[in-house]
Amino acid sequence: MKNSAYWSKLTNSLSPYIPGEQPKSTEKIIKLNTNENPYPPSPKVIEAIKNAADEKLKLYPDPACTVFREAVASRYNLKPEQVFCGNGSDEILAFAFAAFFENASGGLPHPQSILFPAITYSFYPVYASLWNVPYKSLPLAKDFSVNSEDYLQDSGGVIIPNPNAPTGRALKRKELTDIASRLEKTKKVFILDEAYIAFNDDPDSGSMIPFINEHPNLLIVRTLSKEASLAGLRSGFAVGSTGLIEGLCRIRDSFNSYTMDRLALAASAAAVLDTAYYDETSRRIISTRNRFSKALTELGFSVIPSQANFIFIMPPPSSLSAAKWLVTLREKGILIRHFNKPDIENYLRVSIGTDGEMNIFLNACKGIIGRKA
């Protein structure tokens, strides 16, 4: 739709985030385009939802999200006061931009720009524009890794996904610690988006949750959409110092104190505590990812090393363009993601499905390459 005369100047200026295609339920589709977990939620999660679906739904939910916060605190050896819960990590990230990054109309004449990678989660520039936060997007290295030293400069704050999306590459803990320490000198916040950290198999680049007590400016944001198979529920949490959590609460309570409903709270707490189930599904996804990365490399694809539940690939030089691969696979009932942006326009992001789904994807690739040849 064209801009409307009834919209505010801000609304007219926004370029909203565009999610991946969500097909109609009647279509027979192999969905490898939105990084969903291919395995079902834990049976304990389904049981928790059933138990919570009772007459108490007539009452407002707990605005403090106590049961969910206590579950997160228990799992990660934290205090509940160090945990914030919300309606998906996207909502929490939106609150965090408002809570911790100075905007151009907030009283400072020229606030410092925040920093994030030029190739990254495309919601970050949307949030920055929404809150009028100045930003600089910093280029990746030639191998699509984040140059951690670039983030040691003066700034208004930093946000980085680890592993990064859509590339799947991850930074080492030492690099992240250096960024947090540098920002702490100027009392700026470092937001670490760990949406895909459950699929990391490099011990040197694991979650930074164990280090939040050492870095009062470090906020770690997690989602249950990926690791807990709850993309359809909308649940996430953030952990950090009590000061950062209180800042998020102030923003939330200026919008809506009841961001999570009773069913989501019960399900989220059950998911966080069922570590055995989800550790196993994550191991299966990692195994599938590594196996099919190797298989695609043997077919001539360029595969970026991934620590996420997706792979970032460039088609063989003599085959179709990435945009044509997207269309051709869609015709075969396989959805993947293509970002028509500079430096990555000839790459495709493929979510990791079950072994059966990935076999179908791999066979389709072989057929397309053979037909092209």
What attributes characterize this protein structure?
373 residues, Aspartate Aminotransferase, domain 1, 2 domains, four-stranded antiparallel β-sheet, 11 helices
Please give a structural write-up.
By secondary structure, this protein is an alpha/beta fold. The chain folds into two domains: 115 residues, Aspartate Aminotransferase, domain 1 (Alpha-Beta Complex); 231 residues, Aspartate Aminotransferase, domain 2, CATH 3.40.640.10. It has a five-stranded mixed beta sheet with strand order 2-8-7-6-5, sandwiched between helices. It has a four-stranded antiparallel beta sheet with strand order 9-10-13-12, covered by helices on one side. Helix 5 links the parallel strand 3 and strand 4. The longest helix has 24 residues. It is globular and about 60 Å long.
Q: What's the structural blueprint in terms of helices and strands?
A:
Layout: H1 9-13, E1 30-31, H2 43-52, H3 66-76, E2 83-86, H4 89-100, E3 114-117, H5 123-130, E4 135-138, E5 158-161, H6 173-184, E6 190-193, E7 218-223, E8 236-239, H7 242-252, H8 262-273, H9 275-298, E9 302-304, E10 310-314, H10 322-331, E11 334-335, E12 337-338, E13 348-351, H11 355-372
Parallel strand pairs: 1-11, 3-4, 5-6, 6-7
Antiparallel strand pairs: 2-8, 7-8, 9-10, 10-13, 12-13
